[in-house]
Specification:
Layout (H helix, E strand, L loop, with lengths): L6 H17 L4 H18 L1 H7 L3 H23 L17
Helix pairs in contact: 1-2, 2-4
Length: about 100
């Protein structure tokens, strides 16, 4: 089995992305961390599921991308900026 198909590689990537999220808080890296963690979980626990998916790098990358996108959209909806939360100015505050 290739190293990219090992569960611990995806797990290390998930942890590194989660640590990066703490350093650069933007909720982008957290979505990727959730995606990498999900792929690690699929490879660790879901033996038949991983075999059914093919456990090839294109398939795992696609699963990672889809789960990351869904996680990012969910985080944005749950933790994002709400309408009316941002103050906007419709005039120049530096002039009379």
């Amino acid at each position: 089995m290739m190293v990219w198909a090992e569960w611990w590689v995806w797990g290390v990537a998930a942890i590194a992305l989660a640590v990066g999220e703490v350093i650069l808080p933007s909720f982008v890296l957290l979505g990727f961390a959730i995606g990498a963690g999900a792929v690690a979980l699929i490879l660790l626990v879901g033996g038949p599921l991983a075999v059914w998916l093919g456990a090839s790098i294109p398939v795992m990358a696609l699963v990672f991308a889809v789960i990351s996108l869904l996680a990012w959209l969910g985080l944005r909806r749950w933790l994002g900026v709400y309408r009316g939360q941002v103050k906007t100015f419709d005039h120049d505050i530096n002039r009379d």
